[in-house]
Specification:
The chain is mainly α. Helices cover 81% and strands 0% of the residues.
């Protein structure tokens, strides 16, 4: 789950980096984006009898998004 949400955080962090947002703002936006998207996914899973939602998935998805946003300045300097 962490690895699947890291690209989302990376791209969100990269966009906010080019808009000259501070590190705290980039991480906060990535936190909100990752948590809200993961919460939507987990809520939809309640209606699927084969899948079951879990708090761990929500937590690890959010952590993955945060890690992606955290590492975005490093890769943005290398590739841009």
């Amino acid at each position: 789950n962490v690895l699947l949400f890291m690209p989302l955080g990376f791209f969100a962090g990269s966009v906010l980096l080019f808009e000259r947002k501070s590190a705290k703002q980039r991480l906060l936006y990535a936190l909100l984006l990752g948590c809200s998207l993961s919460l939507c996914i987990e809520t939809i899973q309640t209606y699927n009898p084969v899948r079951s939602p879990s708090f761990g998935d929500l937590l690890f998805n959010t952590i993955g998004c945060l890690l992606g946003a955290y590492w975005s300045p490093v890769f943005a300097r290398v590739y841009c």
